Structures are given as structure tokens and as C-alpha cells.
Amino acid sequence: MSEQARTTIDQAQVDRFSAMAAEWWDPKGKFRPLHKFNPVRLAYIRDRVSENFGRDAKAPQPLKGLRLLDIGCGGGLLSEPMARMGADVVGADASEKNIMIAKTHAAGSGVAVDYRAVTAEALAQAGETFDVVLNMEVVEHVADVEFFVSICASMVRPGGLMFVATINRTIKAAALAIFAAENVLRWLPRGTHQYEKLVRPEELEKPIEASGMTVTERTGVFFNPLANQWNLSKDMDVNYMLVARRPAS
Ligand SMILES: C[S@@+](CC[C@H](N)C(=O)[O-])C[C@H]1O[C@@H](n2cnc3c(N)ncnc32)[C@H](O)[C@@H]1O
């Protein structure tokens, strides 16, 4: 298939998110797991970015002056805190409704984020580049994972980082992240995730490495029911995150 004919849009997935858009900022609503995830993933991103760019992670705005893309930003649950940490954030999502909700929320919170209803391929084609690309909980919802990851990686500047978070395609993930989360705990609406669309780490690493980036860290993220919180873990069988770095030129 020619590059031009390839698309990252799985319209049924985008429609599903558009239909739930009003709930993005309700911590008890359909995006509850993402709200619960936020403390652990925000600290992880802040610390890795600070380390990479020689910043003090404890400073009030450790990401000051860095240009950051939050691709598949949804309602902006990551974009807003990243902007508060000082980054110049572009929040991009294929769903216009998500972007509308994100813009409204940011205006209410007084946070400046450049929200755009565009695909990753449109941004790359326009020649956009970033110090940091966040690719969080999106790859399991796109049409062409390899293409999507390559496009996102192509926008990372020399010396920059890309974070990818998703759910592994394992039996354990099918049991916990799909069956239990959707049918028993009811954390997510039924049909949020499809087993066939889950992505194994090596399926991300191939296009990342092919784009000239190096995967520098792999970590699992696991829910601790006793503490009622998510923690970093060595176990990558269910939720996991990768960090990749483009060598400085
Ligand atoms: C599970 S949400 C993740 C939201 C956000 N990244 C977070 O972690 O809080 C997935 C988002 O990806 C968006 N999306 C799906 N396919 C996309 C594509 N090809 N390009 C851009 N956004 C896409 C959906 O509209 C949805 O908002």
C-alpha cells in the first residue's frame, strides 16, 4: 500500500470516543481508569523528561520551553498538566468532539494548550516537530499501528523522547483489562477494548527502532487493589509503557 493511501483512523473507534466525549473530565465517569492512572504516569513522564533534558524534576515548571505533542489527547487529561509543568503543548485528536471538550475545559482552568482536531499524519505532513511526543493509550485504537508509531516517531526532534503506553496482547490482559475491567468491575464500558487490537511491546519496538529511535526503558503498570492505585511494575503482561529516545544529531 502506498504511504498516501495509509490511514491511522479506525472510524468506529473515533466515533466511540466522540460519543463519550462529555465524560472526559468526570473522575467517576467512563474515563475513570485514565483519571486513576494520571498520578503515576504524570510523575513518570515528568521524571524521564527532566532527566533527559537536564531539568530539575522538582522545579515548579520542569518542562518549561519544551515543545510537546499529546497525540490522541482525548479531553486533555495529560495535555493540561503538561502545560502546567511549563511545556508548550499541542493536543491533537482525531475526534472533533474531544477537542471541543478539551478546549472548553482548558479555557475554564486557565491553561494554554494548542488543541487541534487532526491526525498524526496531518501534523507530520505539515512538518511539525517536538521535543517530546506522548502516545498514551492510543495505539490500541488506531487502524495501522506500525504506520501510526512511525509517523509519531518521525516528529521527535534529535535528542527528544517518545512515550508509548498501551495494553499488551496476552491472556492475562484479556482476563484483567478487558473481561474484569468491562464486565466485573465496570470501570470501562463494554467493547472499549478488543483483544485483536491490543499491541505487544515488540510490535511497537519494530517501527520505533526502524525510525532511528532507541527504546531506553520498558515498564509495566499494575493496579494494586489494596492501595486502590496504579504503580509501576516489572510485569508488562497487562498495561505497560515504553520510552524511546532519538539520538542527538
Ligand atoms: C483511550 S483515549 C486516550 C486519551 C489520552 N491519550 C489519555 O491517555 O488520557 C484514545 C484517544 O485516541 C484518539 N484517536 C484514535 N485514533 C486516533 C488517530 N488515528 N489519531 C489521533 N487520535 C486518535 C481517540 O479519539 C481518543 O481520544
From TrEMBL:
Q: Which Pfam families match?
A: Methyltransf_11
- Annotated ranges, domain Methyltransferase type: 69-163
Q: Output this protein's name.
A: Ubiquinone biosynthesis O-methyltransferase
PANTHER family registered for this protein in UniProt: METHYLTRANSFERASE, UBIQUINONE BIOSYNTHESIS O-METHYLTRANSFERASE, MITOCHONDRIAL
Q: Which CDD domains does its entry note?
A: AdoMet_MTases
Q: In which pathway does it act?
A: Cofactor biosynthesis; ubiquinone biosynthesis
Question: From which source organism is this entry?
Answer: Rhizobium giardinii
User: Which gene produces this protein?
Assistant: ubiG
Query: Which NCBIfam families does this UniProt record tie to the protein?
Result: UbiG
